[in-house]
TrEMBL record, chain A:
Name of the protein in its database record: Copper oxidase
Plastocyanin-like domain sequence ranges: 35-138
Record InterPro entries: Cu-oxidase-like_N (IPR011707), Cu-oxidase_fam (IPR045087), Cupredoxin (IPR008972)
UniProt keyword terms in alphabetical order: Copper, Metal-binding, Oxidoreductase
GO MF terms held by the record: copper ion binding; oxidoreductase activity
Domain of life: Bacteria
Source organism per UniProt: Biomaibacter acetigenes
Signal sequence bounds: none
SUPFAM superfamilies, sorted: Cupredoxins
UniProtKB/TrEMBL annotation, chain B:
Listed GO MF terms: metal ion binding; oxidoreductase activity
Name of the molecule in the record: Ferroxidase
InterPro entries per the UniProt record, alphabetical: Cu-oxidase_fam, Cupredoxin
Record key words, sorted: Copper, Metal-binding, Oxidoreductase
Lineage summary: Bacteria, Bacillati, Bacillota, Clostridia, Thermosediminibacterales
SUPFAM superfamilies associated with the record: Cupredoxins
The species this protein was found in: Biomaibacter acetigenes
Record's keyword annotation contains Metal-binding: yes
């Protein structure tokens, strides 16, 4: 039995342009900050789960679990909640200022799912009350059978990444802390987030100490030929077209449902994946290289400087060499963050205004996929594990 | 096979959204006021469908501009002048080389002069199809000139027939116990209040403030059918383990994500192309589906536990009335 303890709290998140934005989020401990997104819930198919929610916010909050069946509170299935004949929540909730509720369910299917507040969702989900659920298949074994949907489903992976997308309109968040009316009709996002962070913070490591409320990075790191499972969740209210430059992924499941009907493989390859609201997409990505090795040199020219930049002017991830594992000269005045001659390419929303922070490029929904030379990456990179909060 | 005749007028009327009366233009029969959405046209494969659209004859509530209908997804639509005229394929209309309509249309006329067009086609493929204005479509569809055509396979209503209670015939995994058509859309109240016949509305000003399901906003979506100029309720009543067929169409100008209330559904057809055939199953499961304007999807949902499920637009800014939840594009499914 997995027991997940969550707290609904207020907090502040940071953006790379120096803003501190009030938000509501789930937290993994009574003394821990609210976080964006909420702690990932990582459980196993067939194993009973209890989610205990303590609500420290000034209005009722719930944990709604789309795609999970048989969710109960006490001995009853969760159900829409009414007050004076008016719907106030899609499911049972914890009352304001200290209320609690416990949900129990047994996930019957492996996959990637969203959890979010089903109470005043036009406000609470936009303020940050959302997170991801990963259900491991019954036969999952971290060492011997790492698959997304069970052995025989062609979903083996070496590393995995969970990336949750959303949008932020800071003025709506500000209205909440100032006690002003929350005018959803005025919703006008200025920040676009991957795992609660805007680029270039998306490329910072997990648990970066200066982002206490945004503990999850969104950089995808792998070695050549490794199978990388990338789990996308759309937690916002807009659709976002995501693509890794010069590469494609194979979509193996949507909304936690394997794309396979009997023997019929329905998985498909895409360059761009349109991540829709409330929907999830599991993909296998494999980088097999461009076919050249050190024994097979090709002439290269140094790329245009403006094509190398990331973050501040003059910053680059480029190694100075087209060869994986080799570093070369970089132009004067350019600072390279390249570690060991790894290869970086962008993964971003192709809706270009959304790769800005309040209009300033670069920012928003942008990160990198980094291909490291074989043997460089530690096996703990690209491993999803349940953070503290599970008993 | 039968020949089915439908007579439609475009008229001015009023819809009620969140206790506000808002002018709209909609499709009507001769005797009734306009409807939002327009009357649902039901037919079987092989039926010959004739839809006469009239604009002026006996119609004191005419909208004051030409009207015409498009039938996206239906091939071989012919048109015939009424009272008398030759048949010809429908086609875009030009005046002095300038495109004025996507389709043949009926001009405005005097109250004494009967004028009309008969659109004719044979129902060939089962499915659900939008029919909508093909004249100043950016304005008239928003004003309400649209409806749904449901074409069923032969035998769908004959117990014992292999197509009985199927949407797309035997072998398409489309058998259902309960069927519900849900048409998504938006309404910009300001546009409706300020629209002027024969003048173009500046679509840059289009800013919808109501999100509708079958022409209504929640909680009126769950009221009964036939209670107003918005005759189609969206409430779904079923029993546990029923196969509930939701036939979702987006008649609006924006994409919407219809979410199945926490349940998982199986998408069995897209734009009325079934995904399942004898040798291939391309159907897939989803917790919600994003439909672009003009798209449709058929979904089978099987509730396995008794209770109420709220189905809604996952664009959470669209499940409000004014600024408050609940409202907008939501409905309720009750499994008894
Ligand atoms: Cu791009």
């Amino acid at each position: 039995m997995a027991v997940i303890n969550l707290w609904a709290k207020q907090g502040y998140m940071s953006t790379p342009d120096g803003q501190s934005i009030y938000f509501w989020g789930y937290s993994k401990g009574a003394a821990e900050p609210a976080q964006l997104p909420g702690p990932p819930i990582i459980v196993k198919q067939g194993e009973a789960v209890t989610i205990n929610l303590t609500n420290n916010l000034p209005e009722p909050v719930s944990v709604f679990l789309p795609g999970q069946t048989g969710v109960k509170v006490g001995s009853q299935f969760v159900k829409p909640q009414y007050s004076g004949g008016n719907l106030i929540s899609f499911v049972n909730y914890a009352s304001s200022n200290g209320g609690t509720v416990s949900y129990t369910f047994t996930p019957t299917r492996p996959g990637t799912y969203i959890y979010e507040s089903g109470t005043n969702p036009h406000k609470q989900v936009l303020l940050g009350l959302y997170g991801g659920i990963v259900v491991r298949p019954e036969d999952y074994d971290e060492n011997t059978s790492r698959t997304a949907y069970g052995s025989g489903t062609d979903t083996e992976f070496d590393r995995e990444y969970l990336i949750i997308f959303s949008e932020i309109d800071p003025s709506l968040h500000q209205a909440v802390i100032e006690g002003k009316p929350y005018m959803i009709s005025k919703h006008h996002p200025r920040y676009w987030t991957m795992n609660g962070r805007c680029a270039p913070d998306t490329m910072l490591p997990d648990n970066a100490p200066y982002l206490p409320s945004q503990p999850y990075g969104a950089m995808v790191m792998a070695e050549p030929t490794e199978k990388v499972l990338i789990r996308y969740i759309g937690a916002g209210i807009d659709s976002h077209p995501l693509h890794p430059h010069g590469n494609h992924t194979r979509i193996i499941a949507m909304d936690g449902r394997l794309l396979k009907n009997g023997a019929r493989d329905r998985s498909f390859k895409r360059f761009t994946v349109l991540v829709g609201p409330g929907q999830t997409y599991d993909q296998i990505f494999q980088w097999t290289g461009l076919g050249y090795t050190l024994d097979n040199p090709i002439p290269t020219i140094i790329p245009n400087r403006r094509n190398l930049g990331i973050g501040e002017a003059g910053w680059t991830m480029w190694s100075g060499s087209p060869y994986l594992g080799e570093k070369g000269e970089i132009p004067e005045g350019v600072v390279s963050f390249n570690e060991v001659g790894e290869y970086h390419f962008m993964l971003h929303s192709h809706s270009e205004p959304k790769i800005t922070n309040w209009g300033a490029f670069p920012g928003g929904m942008m990160t990198m996929i980094s291909i490291y030379p074989t043997g460089f990456l530690s096996p703990d990179v690209g491993v999803l594990s349940q953070p503290v909060g599970k008993e | 096979m039968a020949t089915l005749f439908f007579s439609l007028w475009v008229k001015r009327g009023t819809v009620t959204l969140n206790n506000q009366n808002i002018p709209f233009w909609g499709l009507a029969t001769l005797a009734t006021g306009p409807r939002l959405p327009g009357p649902t046209i039901k037919a079987k494969v092989n039926d010959n469908i004739r839809i006469r659209l009239s604009n002026s004859f006996l119609n004191i509530k005419q909208i004051g501009e030409p009207v015409g209908l498009m039938f996206p997804g239906i091939e071989g639509v012919m048109v015939e002048e009424w009272p008398a005229g030759n048949s010809r394929p429908v086609q875009p209309q030009y005046i002095n080389g300038e495109l004025v309509a996507f389709t043949d249309y009926v001009d405005r006329g005097s109250i004494f002069l009967p004028k009309g067009l008969i659109y004719k086609f044979q129902a060939k493929k089962p499915g659900i199809y939008l029919y909508e204005s093909g004249v100043k479509s950016e304005k008239q569809i928003q004003m309400g000139v649209y409806g749904i055509i449901v074409i069923k396979p032969v035998g769908y209503n004959m117990p014992g027939h292999s197509n009985y209670k199927t949407a797309y015939g035997a072998g398409t995994n489309s058998n259902y116990d309960v069927e519900k058509v849900l048409v998504m859309g938006e309404i910009d109240t300001t546009m409706h209040e300020n629209v002027v016949p024969e003048k173009n509305y500046n679509m840059l000003d289009f800013k919808p403030n109501n999100w509708i399901l079958n022409g209504r906003v929640y909680p009126h979506t769950i009221d009964s059918d036939n209670n107003s100029s918005q005759p189609y309720g969206s409430r779904i009543n079923c029993r546990v383990n029923d196969r509930v067929l939701l036939r979702i169409a987006n008649a609006g100008y924006e994409a919407h994500t219809f979410y199945f209330g926490g349940l998982t559904g199986r998408i069995i057809a897209e734009d009325s192309y079934p995904l399942v055939s004898a040798d291939s199953d391309l159907s897939y499961e989803k917790n919600g589906i994003t439909l672009a304007p003009g798209q449709t999807a058929d979904v089978i949902i099987i509730p396995t536990a008794r209770g109420e499920y709220i189905l809604y637009d996952r664009d959470y800014n669209h499940i409000v009335n004014e600024e408050s939840f609940p409202g907008g594009m939501m409905t309720s499914m009750v499994a008894g």
